[in-house]
Amino acid sequence: MIQREVIIIFGRTGEGKSTLAKKIIARYNRVVVFDTLHEYHGTVFSDFDSFVDYFQHPDSDFFLVCRFPSPVSFSYAARLLFETQEDILIVLEEADNYLNSVSFNDAYDPFFQIVTRGRHAKISILAITQRPTLIAITLRAMSTRVITFCQTEPGDLDRMEDWGFDPEEVRNLEKFKYLEKTKGGIHDSNDKASPSQHETPKKDILL
What we know:
By secondary structure, the protein is an alpha/beta fold. It has a single domain (6-198), classed as P-loop containing nucleotide triphosphate hydrolases (Rossmann fold, 3-Layer(aba) Sandwich). It is 25% helix and 21% strand. The protein has helices at residues 17-25, 48-54, 71-84, 110-117, 154-162, 167-171; strands at residues 6-10, 30-34, 43-45, 62-66, 88-93, 123-129, 145-148, 179-182, 185-188. A 9-stranded mixed β-sheet has the order 3-4-2-5-6-1-7-8-9. Strand 3 (43-45), helix 2 (48-54) and strand 4 (62-66) form a beta-alpha-beta unit. The two termini are 25 Å apart.
């Protein structure tokens, strides 16, 4: 059984975030993607009402893609998942829309509740964003894995240092290479001790 995780991936466009995310996502049988970038294929929901209707009689396994026009609908969907589902992975593309410092000052925010209390229902989070400065630093204590590809902006490098990374190592990462921090320490993408080196996909994911 997959243990509950809160995974954050930082990286600029074209660095390899999607490829790595695909490997992680494929381990899960029950996945909901908040897909503001329209990058994923699956059962697509463009309105919140149809999303609610689906969960009246959900399949045992699913890959659901939410493309709501209103940001409020994503919050409603997050609350629905938090209150009714378990053993799922929620994927947050452009995660800074949901896991920013404003949200994490609001204990009633559904994304805050999922991150801080979702372990009871084994709700895992995969948060994907370009810049570390856009994510609430309080997530540092709640994450189980933090992965960063190359960062070059001074503010982002300072933030990665706050998260325990060596900023020079982060700056000098080659394309498609990353550093990964877990409770066991920091590993690079070639290190066999890195959890990402042992991802075993159960299925193919189309991005």
